[in-house]
């Protein structure tokens, strides 16, 4: 009888230990998640370089904006982040551009420091564009040059169609979602391949912070909304001069897709940054700035009176 | 800091110098085990084996760092450049160096606390059962690999090098391709723009040393032989020393039959391909940097100049430097040199011309109290290799003590464990002090202008 009891006791002991480990791991994971949520909206390095930030109540949204230290004449630049990341990933690009321009980096509602209660539904691309328009009015700005990255370009395309008067020029870097690979699985595969190229300066740690701040439910819902949005249907209606920028090694926005978008834009031009990857704004911000400067100078000259 | 990616050899001069400098800028000694713990553990055991087994083990270890011929066409140059820049601490630098590899330049950059980006790096490609002495086969078989490498990145020049005198141990199993960047990879561009503020200084290290080569395409070359104890003439036309060397190694050849040279181009390992200057000039103009070129023909010429700059640097900090640290090829630790208040003198190899350089240097210097000497083991008793007695004679010029550091004189030139051992041995030689405050860019410029001319090192404005 004793011989039979021993394995049962051993098994229940292992089960208890497993349960204990599981509880401990969950507790540790929850603590880490909470810790990530509390990450300051501006990184210490950017803060030290002079990047400031402020909160505003914009309509029904409480939005956070980063702003560069120097005031420069001419149209301001507004950097619109990829969803479901936040403006934190664009801080270095903002600082790189700040030598010549006034740069603002808002966090779109529900992301980064512009948090929303988890009960609030995920905003559509059009709603995000309208929030951005409201944010601009709230900051007493009539027009700007808008620079978007990845799905930030989808928001900007919607903004340029719905509120063309606020768009003096557009820079769209690595626009999504490639209509030839419009599925979560294929996008994830492309993202993974791109991540392998960015191992030495990976934005993965920022992504973890932004995922924690946005909440997994919002991340998933927003991904679905972005997947359904068709940027190519909007581009023909954009009259603002638009620069499409892509890295030659970008696996998420391949050349064929970006060229296709370039052909749809009435005033579009395509620029390829040799060697660049998808997260250009984060991995190569100074080269990004260097590449778009001639375009920015031209738009500023065309709008000298503003 | 991380391990080098696929396609770049850790036993290459550029890689080793970059890692030595990066460690110094991170305030760490070179043998910090974060990048090669396995190697550090294996090499001492390897040294206990009989010579032939030891050579075999070293060659097989080196082979692990090579890529296959089919991988050549997919070589990730941008990834390699990313790795290079990621080795350095992320901060603003008053200056940066770029261009030819040079051990003395590594010390100079370390003293100034600034990075150096190499134009050239070694990509070894596996080729088992090769005959190091068969230049024709090496030349023919290398063409396809060079074509693959050229396709991998269109702004590359490929210099295949076959040096059976110095590299015969590895050439049994690999072919060597030195890749020269004729344009800046995006990672270099980004790093320089991010780290060098406006009005910063970018120094181009320009070794003008040429070598006769056989052109295999508009951007690929085959170089037979290299800078060491044998002369260009001996590599191409043979001679008594070559015949004796080949007989000693049981080769069926009595002299090497290299393909006829068609051009003279920058030397594969040390020379600068001047195509790089144009993108650098454009970038410097855009960013408002001062672009200065340090030009020299003999790589060791810079060692004389840097030693003098170090002496002045120490003196300005109230330190009377009495210790000389003699580096050998890729064996160096600028971190240790600065902390022991030692004057570094880098030698390209263990061959007689390098011994003659050191002798010339010592002739013109007040006697050093201590001389520490590192000695790289190539695994071959090559033509022109300076015997240990010659080095010992130079060490004996020290007033107090001259010693080989981390060198097993019984096993030299098959003492591979020296690579894992030399740094800890160096640190044990003298107490470690705080280094002087970083050398200013103006002092670097002033030093080169003051001491360069007499050693054939000149400084030129490129913008």
Portion of residues in beta strands of chain B equals 15-25%
Helix content of chain A: 40-55%
Largest interface: A-B, 18 and 16 residues
Q: Strand fraction band of chain A?
A: 15-25%
Mean pLDDT of chain B: 92
Quaternary form: heterodimer
Secondary-structure blueprint of this entry?
The complex is a heterodimer of chains A (306) and B (463).
Chain A (H helix, E strand, L loop, with lengths): L1 H36 L6 H5 L3 E7 L2 E7 L9 E4 L10 H7 L5 E4 L18 H14 L5 E6 L1 H12 L4 E7 L10 H14 L6 H11 L1 H13 L13 E6 L7 H10 L3 E6 L6 H4 L1 H18 L4
Parallel strand pairs in A: 3-4, 3-5, 5-6, 6-7, 7-8
Antiparallel strand pairs in A: 1-2, 2-4
Helix pairs in contact in A: 1-7, 3-11, 4-5
Chain B lengths: L12 H13 L11 H11 L3 H13 L5 H4 L4 H10 L8 E5 L3 H10 L3 E3 L1 E7 L8 H18 L3 E7 L5 H4 L2 E8 L4 H10 L5 E7 L2 E8 L2 E5 L7 H6 L2 H9 L14 E4 L10 H11 L2 E7 L4 H16 L6 E6 L5 H6 L2 E6 L4 H12 L6 E4 L14 H8 L5 E4 L13 H10 L13 H11 L6 E4 L2
Parallel strand pairs in B: 1-2, 1-6, 4-8, 6-10, 11-12, 11-13, 13-14
Antiparallel strand pairs in B: 3-5, 4-5, 7-8, 7-9, 10-15
Helix pairs in contact in B: 1-6, 2-17, 5-9, 6-13, 13-18
Can you characterise this structure?
- The complex is a heterodimer of chains A (306) and B (463).
- By secondary structure, chain A is an alpha/beta fold.
- Chain A has 2 domains: 1-38; 41-302, Alpha/Beta hydrolase fold, catalytic domain (Rossmann fold).
- In chain A, 47% of the residues lie in helices and 15% in strands.
- Chain A contains 11 helices and 8 strands.
- Chain A has an 8-stranded mixed beta sheet, sandwiched between helices.
- Chain A is globular.
- Chain A starts with a helix and ends with a helix.
- Chain B is built from 18 helices and 15 strands.
- In chain B, the strands form 3 sheets. Chain B has a 6-stranded mixed beta sheet with strand order 3-5-4-8-7-9.
- The model of chain B has no long low-confidence stretch (mean pLDDT 92).
């Amino acid at each position: 009888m004793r011989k039979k009891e021993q394995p049962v006791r051993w098994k229940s002991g292992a089960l208890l230990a497993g349960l204990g480990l599981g509880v401990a791991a969950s507790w540790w994971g929850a603590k880490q998640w909470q810790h990530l949520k509390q990450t300051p909206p501006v990184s210490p390095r950017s803060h030290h370089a002079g990047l400031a930030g402020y909160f505003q109540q914009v309509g029904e949204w409480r939005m956070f904006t980063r702003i560069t230290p120097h005031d420069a004449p001419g149209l301001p630049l507004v950097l619109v982040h990829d969803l479901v990341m936040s403006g934190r990933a664009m801080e270095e690009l903002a600082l790189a551009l700040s030598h010549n321009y006034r740069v603002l980096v808002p966090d779109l509602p529900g992301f980064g420091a512009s948090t929303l209660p988890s009960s609030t539904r995920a905003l559509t691309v059009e709603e995000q564009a309208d929030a951005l328009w409201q944010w601009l009015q709230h900051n007493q700005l009539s027009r700007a040059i808008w620079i978007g990255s990845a799905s930030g370009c989808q928001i900007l395309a919607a903004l340029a169609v719905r509120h063309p008067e606020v768009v003096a020029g557009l820079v769209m870097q690595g626009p999504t979602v490639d209509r030839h690979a419009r599925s979560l699985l294929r996008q994830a595969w492309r993202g993974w391949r791109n991540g392998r190229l960015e191992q030495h300066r990976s934005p993965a740690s920022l992504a973890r912070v932004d995922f924690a701040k946005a909440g997994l439910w919002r991340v998933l819902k927003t991904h679905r909304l972005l997947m359904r949005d068709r940027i190519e249907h909007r581009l023909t209606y954009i009259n603002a001069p638009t620069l499409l920028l892509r890295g030659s090694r970008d696996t998420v926005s391949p050349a064929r897709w970006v060229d296709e978008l370039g052909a749809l834009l009435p005033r579009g031009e395509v620029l390829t940054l040799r060697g660049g990857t998808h997260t250009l704004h984060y991995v190569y911000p100074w080269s990004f700035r260097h590449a778009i400067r001639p375009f920015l100078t031209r738009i500023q000259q065309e709008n000298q009176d503003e | 800091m991380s391990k080098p990616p696929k396609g770049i050899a850790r036993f290459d001069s550029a890689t080793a110098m970059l890692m030595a400098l990066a460690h110094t800028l991170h305030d760490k000694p070179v043998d910090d085990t974060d990048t090669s713990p396995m190697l550090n553990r294996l090499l001492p055991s390897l040294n206990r084996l009989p010579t032939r087994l030891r050579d075999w083990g070293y060659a097989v270890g080196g082979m692990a760092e090579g890529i296959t011929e089919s991988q050549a066409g997919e070589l990730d140059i941008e990834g390699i450049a990313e790795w290079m820049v990621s080795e350095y601490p992320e901060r603003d630098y008053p200056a940066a160096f770029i261009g030819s590899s040079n051990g003395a330049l590594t010390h100079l950059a370390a003293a100034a606390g600034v990075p150096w980006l190499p134009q050239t790096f070694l990509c070894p490609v596996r080729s088992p059962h090769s005959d190091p002495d068969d230049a024709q086969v090496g030349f023919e078989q290398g063409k396809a690999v060079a074509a693959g490498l050229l396709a991998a990145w269109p702004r590359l020049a490929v210099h295949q090098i076959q040096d059976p005198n110095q590299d015969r141990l590895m050439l049994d199993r690999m072919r060597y391709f030195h890749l020269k960047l004729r344009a800046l990879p995006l990672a270099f561009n980004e790093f320089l723009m991010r780290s060098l503020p406006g009005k910063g200084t970018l120094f181009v290290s320009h070794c003008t040393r040429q070598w006769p080569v056989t052109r295999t395409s508009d951007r690929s070359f085959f170089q037979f032989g290299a800078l060491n104890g044998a002369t260009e003439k001996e590599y191409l036309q043979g001679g008594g020393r070559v015949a004796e060397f080949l007989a000693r190694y049981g080769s069926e050849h009595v002299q090497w039959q290299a393909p006829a040279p068609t051009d003279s181009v920058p030397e594969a390992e040390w020379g600068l391909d001047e195509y790089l200057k144009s993108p650098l000039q454009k970038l410097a103009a855009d960013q408002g940097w001062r672009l200065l070129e340090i030009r020299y023909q003999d790589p060791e010429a810079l060692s004389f100049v840097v030693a003098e700059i170090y002496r002045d640097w120490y003196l300005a900090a109230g330190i009377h430097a009495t210790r000389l640290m003699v580096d050998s090829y890729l064996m160096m630790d600028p971190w240790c040199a600065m902390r022991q208040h030692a004057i570094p003198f880098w030698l390209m190899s263990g061959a007689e011309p390098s011994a003659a350089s050191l002798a010339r240097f010592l002739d013109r210097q007040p006697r050093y109290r201590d001389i520490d000497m590192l000695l790289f083991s190539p695994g071959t008793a090559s033509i022109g290799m300076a015997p240990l007695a010659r080095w010992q004679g130079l060490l004996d010029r020290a007033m107090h003590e001259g010693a080989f550091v981390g060198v097993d004189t019984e096993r030299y030139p098959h003492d591979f464990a020296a690579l894992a051992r030399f740094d800890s041995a160096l640190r044990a030689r003298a107490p470690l002090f705080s280094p002087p405050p970083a050398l200013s860019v103006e002092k670097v410029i002033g030093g080169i202008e003051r001491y360069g001319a007499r050693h054939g090192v000149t400084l030129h404005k490129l913008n």
